[in-house]
Amino acid sequence: MTNYDLRTRKALRQVTLLEYGCGPETLRRRKICPSCGKANSADRTDCTDCGAALPEKTLYDFYLSRHRCCPGCGVAVTNVARYCPECGTRLPKAGVTRRKGAAV
Prior knowledge:
30% helix
């Protein structure tokens, strides 16, 4: 596979994720209400439906805290991976890694 094919494949995947609302950009902009389950914007502190207090963490923060992620690009990787399938960064041997500057 050429570099052009890899870049095209990555761009198509990002468009699909954004279109269906599952990409990291969408996850960074959402908080879920623990009481009613409604999605709210990340800048809110209380739920628009029920008024309950929202958690400080966004959906992306929860995602990063529960998955092993590449320190370079933030993509989720398996526990046995040695290199990131997206950017090729060498991964640490054990434990959950977080992207540089990611808030948890």
